[in-house]
Each structure stands twice: as structure tokens, then as C-alpha cells.
Design brief:
Elements: E1 3-13, E2 16-17, E3 22-27, E4 31-35, H1 42-50, E5 55-64, E6 67-68, H2 74-79, E7 82-85, E8 92-96, H3 97-106, H4 115-128, E9 139-140, H5 146-160, E10 164-168, H6 176-191, E11 195-199, H7 203-209, E12 213-218, E13 221-226, H8 228-237, H9 240-246, H10 262-272
Parallel strand pairs: 4-11, 4-12, 7-10, 10-11
Antiparallel strand pairs: 1-2, 1-3, 1-5, 5-6, 8-9, 12-13
Helix pairs in contact: 4-5, 5-6, 6-7
The chain binds adenosine-5'-triphosphate and magnesium ion (MG).
């Protein structure tokens, strides 16, 4: 991947508009901190790039090395080198982790991976993320602790070796040692040419991986971009300076209260009795 251009993307999910004219440019070798207040569209943007069908793009475009990304199927995007680590990795009961990993690797190969190579690669990856490789025989994510799920996402990233990795709050729920382990994996992959977009609410991970760009999503669009110092500032001061210094008003997510709430109905009934 040389370049990903996101141009004026607007989208909705189940009729709710989320992204509004969102634009961002990513170049090979970037390590981007993607921040923004809760519910303003960070995960949505990553899902749109990966092709989650729950989100409907209503306008705008995204091009990967000049090709229309949004018209590609999810597996095609994955084969082009995109990978997403989920904020909340789903449990997949009935699917044995090892089978899932093998399918994931084989989908990218012409001939299926040999058992020996598969064993060596997965064992090394389990060691890197400091998880017990016995977990490979369990159902994917089922019963995993929060931190184990996050380590398991990074493990998958190690196995597929993406060109562009989208990491959605990969650091939430991780203990201090795990954070360091994951930062080491990211740094190693950065050296091997992987580009990263990393969503986090904290600067600990950003410090460990030396981000070179910051993008802030507010009200469904990238409202401000800067270098690593911008992520640092947000971590220290929060988002209020955006309004004071940049005139960016942060819309609240709460929907207007309905005229009649369940509570008021109940009160009316009590009064009627
Ligand atoms: N499938 C959906 N149906 C309806 N609304 C949705 C759906 N998915 C997301 N939203 C809404 O879109 C908004 C943006 O959500 P998103 O998950 O992108 O936020 P975020 O910036 O990642 O927040 P956080 O920091 O809390 O993870 C939220 O208000 C969310 O409730
Ligand atoms: Mg999110």
C-alpha cells in the first residue's frame, strides 16, 4: 500500500447518519493516532474502510493506491493488505481458533500452508503475544478474558502480516506488560513496512509506538489534524480547547428526550388509579 485517500465520506447505520463529509489521507509508513470523543465515528470509519455491511456509505469515496476501495468485497480488501482489530472482538462459538487461523492464512495462498509451517508460525505468534498456544484449540474468543481477546487480535495481525492495520482501541483492557508487548509487535511491523491507524483514548500506546500524525474525529468528520504533539495535548487537556481555539463545537450524542417517557407513562397510570 502506498496511499489511502478518504474523501468526503458520509454514512449511516440503521438510518442513523454517522460520518459526515469525513476526509483523511494516509501514506505508506504512517502511524496515525485517530482520536475523538466517544460516539463521534472512529470505529465507524474503520468499519467502513474494512467493509462492514452494517454501515451504508451515502456519499464520498475511498481509494487505495488509486483503486476504488468501497466497491471491493471484504475478502478482497483483506487480500489487498487491510486488517482490522476490533474494539470488541466477537465470540464465535463453534469455530475452533486454530481452524479459523488456518482458513485465514490459506485464503491468502494459492496452495494451503503445510502443517509444519502453520504450527511453527502460530507457535511463534502465541509466544510473541504471551498467550498459551493451548488456546488455539478453544472456540474463537469464547470465554477469553478482555485482555486475551485483544492479544488474540494482535496475534491474527502477526499471522496475516497486513500492509495497513486498523487497530480499534487495542490497548483497552490490557495490563501494563501486555501494552508493552503489543507496542513491540507494532514497532516490529512498522519497521517491516506496515502502515497503522490506531484508535485509542490514551497516549501511553501512542508514546510507545511513536505516532507521526494525529487525526481527531468530531461530529463524524476529521475536524483537526496534527503531529504527535496533538495527541499528547488531548490526553492532557481533553477536547475543550478545540472549541476555544479552533471553533470546533462538539455536538452531544444524547438524543432529545421524547415528550413521553416510559417513566411519565407509569406516573400517569398511578395518578389515574
Ligand atoms: N449499527 C448502528 N446503528 C445505529 N447507530 C450506530 C450503529 N453503529 C454505530 N452507531 C452510532 O454511531 C455513533 C458513532 O459510533 P462509533 O462506534 O463510530 O463511535 P466511536 O467514535 O468509535 O466511539 P468510542 O470512543 O465510544 O468507541 C454512535 O452514536 C453510535 O451509537
Ligand atoms: Mg469506537
Amino acid at each position: 500500500m502506498e496511499n489511502l485517500t478518504i474523501e468526503n465520506i458520509s454514512c449511516e447505520a440503521e438510518g442513523t447518519p454517522i460520518l459526515k463529509d469525513c476526509s483523511l489521507e494516509i501514506n505508506k509508513g504512517d502511524c496515525v493516532a485517530l482520536l475523538g470523543p466517544n460516539g463521534h465515528g472512529k470505529s465507524t470509519l474503520l468499519n467502513i474502510l474494512m467493509g462492514n455491511p452494517r454501515y451504508k456509505v451515502t456519499s464520498g469515496k475511498a481509494t487505495l493506491d488509486g483503486e476504488d476501495l468501497l466497491s471491493m468485497e471484504v475478502d478482497e480488501r483483506s487480500k489487498k493488505g487491510l486488517f482490522m482489530a476490533f474494539q470488541n472482538p466477537p465470540d464465535v462459538p463453534g469455530v475452533v481458533t486454530m481452524d479459523f487461523f488456518r482458513g485465514m492464512i490459506n485464503a491468502r495462498l494459492e496452495k494451503p500452508v503445510s502443517l509444519l509451517k502453520f504450527y511453527k508460525e502460530t507457535t511463534a505468534a502465541y509466544e510473541k503475544v504471551d498467550l498459551d498456544s493451548e488456546m488455539a484449540s478453544r472456540h474463537l474468543n469464547e470465554g477469553y478474558s478482555g485482555g486475551e481477546k485483544k492479544r488474540n487480535e494482535i496475534l491474527q495481525m502477526l499471522l496475516v502480516k497486513p500492509k495497513l492495520a486498523l487497530l480499534d482501541e487495542i490497548d483497552s483492557g490490557l495490563d501494563v506488560d501486555a501494552l508493552k508487548i503489543i507496542a513491540d509487535v507494532i514497532n516490529e511491523m512498522k519497521e517491516n513496512g506496515t502502515t497503522f491507524i490506531i484508535v485509542s483514548h490514551y497516549d501511553r500506546l501512542y508514546d510507545l509506538v511513536n505516532v507521526n500524525k494525529t487525526a481527531i474525529i468530531v461530529n463524524g468528520k476529521v475536524a483537526l489534524e496534527g503531529d504527535a504533539s496533538l495527541a499528547k495535548r488531548i490526553s492532557k487537556e481533553g477536547y475543550s480547547f478545540l472549541e476555544k481555539e479552533y471553533d470546533i463545537k462538539i455536538e452531544k450524542n444524547e438524543k432529545k428526550a421524547n415528550d413521553v417517557s416510559i417513566g411519565s407513562c407509569a406516573v400517569k397510570q398511578v395518578i389515574a388509579k
